[in-house]
Write a structure and sequence with these properties.
single chain; alpha+beta; nine-stranded antiparallel β-sheet; five-stranded parallel β-sheet; 13 helices; about 30% helix; binds adenosine monophosphate; binds glycine
Length: about 425
């Protein structure tokens, strides 16, 4: 098969790495890719949000399968674009159309969908500038802290968690009246604050049947102890120790199955990944964890993919093809029982301003881990340079979490560039749960 993967981060390197292992993969292109994906296939300088350009490239190069990494092209309607065009319709494309992508593209859509389908989530209401006074009144019925969410995509910054009622009201006004996040905050979801442990569950679906991929936990804050501003993710581990069979069965029955049924009821033909951002909340009486949905995403997580995909033993090209064709129930999905732990190495200063273009050395000395590239570029002479905030993701597989973490940190220590930074406590919260 001739395959085109869209995206350029660590997630895409991990997906490319697995696809390149498949005997079904005859030729892999990655657009635009990074220095790491160049080792799995051929990088192509394409603007992935220019659908006509992607379509032309696909036709000219005999592409049979397109895998969409990030959400922007999906929310922007790349799948609709391919399905509408008689020249492109035959190409398999993994990802939902723009209606399905509303699960991520509109928080209000996602919340309505969950309410309609009885999916456990935080109590909420949605407001616009026209009924802002009702928004203030709703805030008064909630307890601190207050959760405000811009309806649309806001580059991961559209969620505010505010400690006081005054700040919540002020920010509600900033979002609705002063367009703090532009059009994305024309509508704002206000919801109840959930407590517990966050984790991520993943399914791949062909619209009718689905398969659960391994779950993972990511670490969003920049500093140890979950301090400092939110980032794209500073590391991840899979599996998640408390997400045992009993808990994952609840996720499947209460969340995943009703989600697939709900999509069908809305007439949405969803073929792709669904990422369930979950809060595992201990029950007041039994202490047992119950899952609640914080958010949906219509793609894999980053850096969750960098610990989830190395655990997939089955052929992912076969899996992706089956999801596109509606034959997912015919494929087997085998998962490595070992633990994967990934440590994200970032540019000092990230997620604020940071340097790019620093020479990276020592990757070749890493023997016991996978090094997925996120923000890197390769010069003509083969040297690799930092080219983003999140730069490299070091993943190790081992029989236990402590071993996987130790190996990843040892490997990360072999890689150098000016002002590199990493969290040193990835997985420590889960190790405490094990004790
Ligand atoms: P989101 O962009 O929806 O993933 O939200 C960003 C982060 O805000 C999440 O990863 C959570 O840490 C936090 N968050 C969102 N909604 C809630 C909620 N209802 N209760 C507690 N924390 C939340
Ligand atoms: N790691 C969280 C995300 O991909 O949204």
């Amino acid at each position: 098969m001739r395959i085109l993967l869209l995206g350029s981060g660590g997630r895409e390197h991990a997906i490319a790495y697995k696809m390149a292992q498949s005997p079904l993969c005859e030729k892999l292109f990655i657009a635009p890719g990074n220095a790491g994906t160049a080792a799995c296939g051929q990088n192509i300088a394409l603007d992935i949000n220019n659908f006509a350009a992607v379509g032309d490239f696909a036709i000219d190069n005999g592409i049979e399968l397109i895998v969409v990494g990030p959400e922007a092209p999906l929310v922007g309607g790349i799948v609709d674009f391919f399905h509408r065009d008689a020249r492109l319709r035959h190409i398999l494309i993994l990802g939902p159309d723009s209606k399905g992508a509303q699960l991520e593209g509109s928080k209000d859509f996602a919340k309505q969908f969950m309410r309609e389908n009885g999916i456990p989530t935080a109590r909420y209401q949605t407001f616009t500038a026209d009924n802002i006074n009702e928004g203030y009144a709703f805030l008064e019925t909630l307890a601190a802290p207050y959760v405000l969410k811009a309806d649309g995509l806001a580059a991961g910054k559209g969620v505010l968690i505010l400690p006081t009622l005054e700040e919540a009201k002020r920010e509600l006004r900033n979002m609705l009246v002063d367009a703090k996040f532009g059009k994305a905050s024309g509508k704002v979801v206000i919801e109840e604050y959930l407590t517990g442990i966050e984790m991520s569950a993943f399914a791949i679906t062909d619209g009718t049947s689905f398969k659960m991929l391994p779950e993972a936990k990511d670490y969003k804050r920049i500093y140890d102890g979950d301090k400092g501003p939110n980032t794209g993710g500073m590391g991840s581990v899979s599996p998640v120790v408390f997400a045992d069979k009993r808990f994952m069965d609840k996720v499947t029955e209460r969340i995943v199955e009703p989600t697939i049924r709900g999509l069908q009821m809305r007439g949405i033909d969803y073929r792709g990944f669904i990422f369930f951002g979950l809060m595992a909340t201990p029950d007041a009486d039994t202490g047992e964890y119950d899952p609640y949905v914080i958010e949906y995403n219509v793609r894999m997580g980053d850096p969750e993919t960098e610990s989830v995909f190395p655990r997939i033993l089955s052929d992912v090209v076969e899996l992706f093809t089956a999801a596109c064709k509606g034959t997912l129930d015919e494929v087997e999905l085998n998962i490595d029982p070992w633990t994967a732990a990934c440590v994200m190495m970032v540019a000092g200063g990230y997620p604020d301003s940071y340097e790019k273009g620093n020479l990276i050395t020592g990757i070749e000395n890493v023997r016991d881990s996978l090094v997925f590239h996120a923000g890197t570029s390769r010069a003509a002479n083969g040297q690799v340079f930092s080219n983003g905030g999140r730069v490299l993701c070091v993943t190790s597989l081992a029989p236990t979490l402590p071993e996987a973490l130790l190996t990843s940190y040892q490997s990360a220590g072999k890689i150098q560039w000016r002002n590199k930074f990493q969290r040193n406590d990835i997985g420590q919260d889960l190790l405490r749960l094990l004790m």
